Amino acid sequence: MSVGALSEWQKLPLSLSELCINTTLRCGQSFRFVSQVFGPQGSQIKRLTLLRWQNFPESQEWRCVLYGHLLSLKQDSNFLYYRSVQPPSHTLTPKTSDNDHLVSIIKHYFNLAPNLTELYSQWSSQDPNFKKKAAQFTGIRILRQDAWEALVSFICSSNNNIARISQMVEKLCIHYGKPVATIEGRAYHDFPPPGALTGNDVESSLRKLGFGYRARYIYQTAVKVSNRDKGWLDSLSNPECPAFGVDPKPSGEMKPEGREGYREAHEKLLELQGVGPKVSDCVSLMGLGWGESVPVDTHVWQIAQRDYRFGKSSNKNLNKTTYDAVANHFRKLWGKEAGWAHSVLFTADLRTFADKLAATKKVDVKVKDEESDITVETQVTSAVSLKVLKEEDVDMKVKVEDIDDTKKPSGKKRKEAEIVSAAQTTETRRTSKRLKR
To answer: What are the transmembrane regions (predicted)?
Structure first.
């Protein structure tokens, strides 16, 4: 395990409208990132996980082990900043080859190839309901997670909430994952491979760790995947969005029910223990890169009923017929990346965000009177403000059906978070003084 120091910050040009990590990493896709908040002089305020989080722009770091590297990320309006752990023998400035590899990991994991602004515009033109919600929830991308990690994480999501899923995933990493680095007294581990979860005592150990009936599902699925040909799970990936390090290929014709490869992946995942239609679609979307995959749980079913007039007929319950009808409707409405658009509406409807976000706009005008010209610079910042809990305790004993941390803490003081800018535009006009005469 490395006990080296974090390298110097590097930056990647990236606007918040193309990626907002503070939203993307908290909307029920990934459960392994740890958040750290620092004070104005860089002093650490508190270590936070998804179990306890606050939103402090530009002072918040997100850390996670990805492909054997401990990455630390933060963001402002124009850049995504990143750094990694360097062994003691390295300098604090990463080598060019190391830096290029880290950038490749970031671009792959955050799925940065698609132009998200164009996709939002496309979905907004086709769907008034999406247009109404999207302005306050820009920058939500579908992650390209490791397929095995996504599979186990969403098996853990059954009858669970985000906080408890994150806690379970962390326990898996601590007890079965490879230790990668220790920073500021905290050990960071990689996600365990299937073979690490096939021991005879795994199921009983996971039960003792609080996994309940999911312990058997994880153990049986690990055994089944381990007994398949190497790379079997990754072979189900969308050829256009393959596993890390694999070159993309065409993926076939889009149909109302999705591409053939997606349907095949969905059905094969259903053969695994603990995998139903929703879990299969979550894995297909966030682990295998099938953008048309639309996970439909009771939460999404409520959105379909409320905003898209489903459930008006005799089929008022979520069953296979209504599940397929909702997913096909969204694929027809939003196209090949329907799962991306669905995730924006899912996030907008979570109490964690929807009850506390409010759109704001700030306009700054600067006038410079120069020798020959008058320059007027107008800067417009679209933003969201967020009410957060100073201390938020999640009741771990309460189980909820959806992947939605909806429990409201009581008796706790709240405070306003700082504003997080979502988009920024600057317009500069110059007028010649000679024309004024």
So the answer is: none
- Residue 46 appears among annotated catalytic residues: no
Predicted confidence (pLDDT) per residue in 371-421, tens digit: 666 665 655 555 444 443 333 333 333 233 333 333 333 344 434 334 444
List the catalytic residue out of 46, 171, 224, 278: 278
Residue 300 tokens, joined: 């999404």
Task: Please give the sequence-ordered ranges of beta strands (E in DSSP) within 56-162, or none if there are none.
Answer: 60-66, 69-75, 79-86
Least confident among 4-13, 38-47, 282-291, 332-341: 38-47
Q: Give one DSSP letter per residue of 340-383, joined into a string.
A: HHHHHHHHHHSHHHHTTEEEEEEEEEEEEE-SSEEEEEEEEEEE
What is residue 6's predicted lDDT score, i.e. its pLDDT? 87
Q: Which of 29, 342, 73 is nearest to 169 (CA)?
A: 29
* Cβ-proximal residues to 384 (8 Å cutoff; 6+ apart), any chain: 136, 357, 358, 359, 360, 419, 420, 422
Backbone region of residue 229 per phi and psi (left: phi > 0; alpha: psi in -120 to 50; beta: other values)? beta
Mean confidence (pLDDT) of the chain: 82
Give the pTM: 0.79
The answer to whether 310 and 316 are in contact (CB under 8 A) is no
User: 203: which residues sit within 8 A by CB, 6+ positions away?
Assistant: 215, 216, 218, 219
Mean pLDDT of 265-283: 97
| Beta bridge partners of residue 35, listed in sequence order | 48, 62
- The amino acid occupying position 102 is L
- C-beta separation of 31 from 16 below 8 A: no
